[in-house]
Design goal:
FAD/NAD(P)-binding domain, 8-stranded mixed beta sheet, 7-stranded mixed beta sheet, 32% helix
Length: 342
């Protein structure tokens, strides 16, 4: 049985970032990806300047640098034209391909079509037959994480995200957020512009609003807003926000496997990058501490409290949304929100 210092399961943003950092060390590292592509996931495809502070993503894979945004309620709208871009859109496959190119493959062995089928205390089983030993194990294997299951950590808090990729050229890219209590309760609909399409989607926690009802309401909203989805591609995926810990002796949970996404916005790329990097640096130095990871956990807790507050607001939720949009038209508040993306 071959043994590695570190085995990383999953080739998404967290796993790839972890492998990139460890590839600069003397450790033997194995990265396993169950498919033949990296980073492919149902996602609106938006990042912020916070993401760019972690990894220096080149312009060649950024589709749009967005300066125009709109937050729209039933009766009001707040439109912003910033001096510099603070939201960027990209294709997740392009991001995964680029992240993979940053890894030192002389130090990191990368295997595709390699699915971890069993996890044990000192080894894993790949594709049902090959045993591979490890000293450290990093679970970066998403919502249905086999590493999380091995640790017997429940997966109870999650969102269901649904969206359509509507084909068409985007000449004036603008990020749009729609607050509509009637259709989405304490969540919202989004419009993210991409190179040859726009992502139009929404999400909810199925314990608070059934996925079936969300889809029903989403289609009604699409019709109301005049979106033509006849030639669009439908996508759906769960998003875990059930964070219950990061380090479990010699095993780490990162990204969605660790429940690092936001239960309110569904945002997860930044959290994945940070948790993947911190896992690597903690393996290299057990005394390593990260203010960024602590900030991610605080941010998610705040987002989750906002989500629960809005859900419990009931009939007052629509009034709260109107107030939010009114406040967003205040210049000082707009500036603070822009700074929060940095």
């Amino acid at each position: 049985m071959k043994k590695y210092d570190v085995v990383i399961i999953g080739g998404g943003p967290a796993g790839l970032r972890c492998a990139e950092i460890l590839g600069k060390s003397s450790l033997s590292v194995l990265l396993l990806e169950k498919t033949d592509t990296f980073g492919d996931k149902v996602c609106a495809g938006g990042i912020t300047r916070k993401d760019l502070a972690v990894i220096n993503i080149p312009d060649k894979i950024i589709e749009h640098k967005i300066t125009n945004t709109a937050v729209i309620s039933v009766k009001r709208r707040s439109v912003t034209r910033a001096d510099e871009a603070f939201v960027f859109t990209l294709n997740r496959k392009d991001l995964g391909k680029w992240q993979k190119e940053q890894i030192n493959t002389e130090k990191v062995e990368i295997r595709t079509l390699a699915k971890a089928t069993e996890v044990h205390a000192e080894y894993i089983v790949v594709n049902g037959e090959e045993k591979i030993g490890y000293h450290y194990l990093v679970g970066a294997d998403g919502y249905n994480s086999i590493v999380r299951k091995y640790l017997k950590i429940p997966q109870e808090k999650h969102l269901i995200g649904i969206q359509y990729m509507v084909p068409g050229q985007v000449t004036n890219p603008r990020l749009e957020i729609y607050l509509n209590s009637k259709y989405f309760k304490s969540w919202y609909a989004w419009v993210f512009p991409h190179k040859d399409s726009i992502a139009v989607g929404c999400a909810c926690d199925p314990k608070m609003m059934s996925a079936r009802k969300l889809k029903e309401n989403f289609h009604a909203w699409l019709k109301e807003k005049g979106f033509n989805i006849e030639n669009a591609t439908y996508q759906s995926a769960p998003i875990s926000y059930d964070y219950r810990g990061f380090k479990f002796n010699n095993i780490y949970l990162t990204g969605e496997a660790g429940g690092f996404a936001s239960g309110f916005t569904g945002e997860g790329i930044y959290q994945s990058l940070v948790s993947g990097e911190v896992a690597a640096r903690t393996i290299l130095d057990e005394n390593y501490t990260s203010e960024e990871l602590d900030a991610v956990i605080r941010y998610n807790n705040i987002q989750n409290r906002i989500m629960k507050f809005l859900y419990r607001s009931g009939i007052f939720r629509s009034l709260i949304y109107e107030l939010i949009v009114m406040l967003l038209n205040n210049k000082r508040i707009k500036k603070k929100i822009h700074n929060s993306f940095s």
